Input
Amino acid sequence: MNKRIRRTKIVATLGPASESPEILDKLIAAGVNVVRLNFSHGTPGDHRMRAENVRAAAKKNGVIVGILADMQGPKIRIGKFKTGKTMLTPGQKFIIDGALGLDDGDDERVGLTYKELIGDVEPGARLLLNDGLIVMDVDAVKGKEIQCTVVIGGTLSNNKGINRAGGGLSAAALTEKDKEDIKTACAIGVDYIAISFPRNGADMDYARSLVEAEGSRAGLVAKVERAEAVQDDNLISIMEASDVVMVARGDLGVEIGDAAVPPVQKKMLRMAPKYNCPVIVATQMMESMCDNPIPTRAEVNDVANAVLDGADAVMLSGESAAGKYPIEAVLAMHRTCLETEKQNVLPSSQTRDPRFPPNSIDECIARQAMETARMMDIRAIMAFTDSGNTTLFMSRHLGSVPIYALTPHERTLGRVTMFRNVIPLIMPINYGPQDAPQATLDVKKMLLDNDLADEDDLIIMTFGTPMGESGGTNALKIIKVGDDR
Output
């Protein structure tokens, strides 16, 4: 048997191009593992409907698909122009005016949604508008006016975002809108909630307190997109406080400069396994497929390099939300991941540098399972898990043997959709202390019935003993699928 399973997960954003049940069904059939709901757009009712459609499409396809709710965060924007836009030229003077009405912009000045920006900048600061396409230097701050000189001009239209080069903006990671959206996401029952623009672990701790207050166990994704967040101390605290981190390359590139993003991405991918923190690489991975049915060679290389560096997931944003070819984009990402993974040039577990020594018994069992799978011809690792932690620990060690998370808990099934090389499988039975032999027989039957192994194959089974009692994984068993015991 040589049944290839893609190890790197695909996250796809829903939007006008992909939210219909028909397209959503095809996206999931094409290989989407996690669907991202962008809370920057839409009403609570819209998000609930999309989540229901995702679950229906996943059930139709016989797979488990995670749901990620992405909070908007403190988007700092200019107001609107009376004519809808203005043309700026290098050397031109222009004012960002905190006292101006949000609809009253003209060729000389424009309003501002985030009034605190006035206190966050000083002469010499550089402002980047519209994702860095427009650049201005601050000459002076007088009253409510930020007086600037245009460095790089172009067309500036309504409601474009503002970043400060090098970071330093005081905006909190969670706005009042985000706090209400967290309540909505928890009520919908999403698996993950992404927090935009966290500065450090304290921002993520605060977000978790809001999630827990809603009675939710949703995992938290830290979108690393501020210059402050990539400083070592802050990045470590974010990884310690988060369940997943995202290399959010759009705003991050604006703040730290585009040339600095690749080394930061690689740094994050090297660091994260120490903290058992999966990594999503995001933004413009297949951007040209918004308009074209095939990706550029550079985009294929971008995805492949993320896979080679050990990313748990790669993400589509506008490509699947608003592009002309959402299904083709998923398929292109799928085949790129598969082709890259089969080259057997992935970094070893030593290169990926998981924590050593293990911090718990279940971490030790997870490591031994992966080492055993490398030393022997193991077809699959079947991991009984209540929380998903054991499979998380296993996924920190890069390997080619598929890891199946066996659990009756919906929350755990959704959680593991983000873990590299982990496949969620529903095991509806809660076994008791004397049920280990029956569990072994059920696992063998599941493998054979689903054509996941042959009778001559060896598998590893991990579980907690006694079965049915709370506690971590503490047992590992090597089994021949065809044996009657």
Observations:
- The domain at 350-480 is CATH 3.40.1380.20 (Pyruvate Kinase; Chain: A, domain 1).
- The two ends are 23 Å apart (CA to CA).
- DSSP finds 16 helices and 21 strands in the chain.
